[in-house]
Design goal:
This protein is an alpha+beta fold and 256 residues long. The chain has helices at residues 11-16, 19-26, 40-43, 46-50, 87-90, 116-137, 161-164, 172-183, 189-193, and strands at residues 2-7, 30-34, 54-58, 68-72, 78-81, 94-98, 103-108, 143-148, 186-188, 220-225, 232-238, 248-253. The strands form two sheets. The chain has a six-stranded mixed beta sheet with strand order 3-4-2-1-12-11. It has a six-stranded mixed beta sheet with strand order 5-6-7-8-10-9. The N and C termini lie close together (7 Å).
């Protein structure tokens, strides 16, 4: 099973820049997009069905803001749009699909870069993710969680750790949450397959030519339960063509 996740920073914009070329080249079984920023009619274009995908969409109450969608070639047993509470639904951040032998959770974590109020919202979101994950783990099916987590976990995951230690997305409290979360049974599959890889990022600011200089952050993840760790075969980041300020992350798992 091949999984692709991307914060497209506007699905219409990403499509105009070559997103479908990536999808056709990779032919993933599961696609998770974050920050779609589009009405449902613009997301459910007919070509997705022609490519064999069924679409599930979670929109924010505010038009043109946030939003996640999941495209799948595998029919789910159950769908929960806005899985969680509060902004998981109202800001269009969460879709949970249940399959016969795993859960697939597309999740867009909030950013705290605009100030203390949103940073507090982010911490509350992290606490809720911990609680919801623990509840899913009790159901005895492996979990695949994908999306823009808006946190670079370690110094290997950011171009200039010392300069960013006081910035949202690399705060000690956020990084500790990720470490604790992994201790709870989730595995960063890209890092598992590439334990020593550096200078491998999934997001770059538009400022100061950061992408051309590869001054980025790895904040987009495909996580899997411990039971799926040995099923992970390949993991990569697709930075070309440039369709967003983020890059697509792709993982192949040997599961039916």
């Amino acid at each position: 099973m091949k999984i692709l996740t991307l914060n497209c920073n506007g699905i219409r914009s990403a499509l105009s820049k070559g997103l479908l070329d990536i999808i056709r080249n990779e032919n993933p079984d599961m696609i998770a997009f974050q920050e779609t920023k589009a009405p449902e009619t613009e997301i459910r274009k007919s070509f997705w069905k022609d490519l064999g995908y069924e679409a599930f969409v979670c929109l924010a109450e505010k038009p043109g803001y946030s939003g996640v969608c999941t495209f799948t070639k595998i029919k789910p047993l159950k769908t929960t749009i806005g899985y969680g509470s509060g902004i998981f639904l109202s800001e269009g951040r969460s879709i949970l699909l249940e399959f016969s032998n795993f859960y697939f959770w597309n999740l867009y974590f909030p950013s705290g870069t605009t100030g203390e109020i949103r940073q507090k919202v982010k911490y509350e979101f992290l606490d809720e993710v911990t609680r919801l994950t623990a509840a899913l783990q009790k159901k005895k099916k492996p979990l695949v969680l994908v999306g823009d987590v808006n946190i670079a976990h370690t110094e290997r995951d950011i171009h200039n750790p010392k300069a960013n230690v006081k910035n949202s997305g690399f705060l000690p409290e956020e990084r500790k949450w990720m470490s604790d979360y992994f201790q709870g049974g989730l595995v960063d599959l890209y890092r598992y397959l590439h334990p020593d890889k550096i200078d491998s990022y999934s997001w770059w600011t538009y400022r100061a030519g950061a992408r051309a200089k590869n001054k980025g952050w790895r904040i987009d993840y495909i996580l899997g339960s411990e039971a799926l760790k040995n099923a992970a075969e390949t993991a990569k980041i697709i930075s070309e063509p440039v369709v967003s300020d983020h890059a697509a992350v792709v993982v192949e798992l040997q599961i039916s």
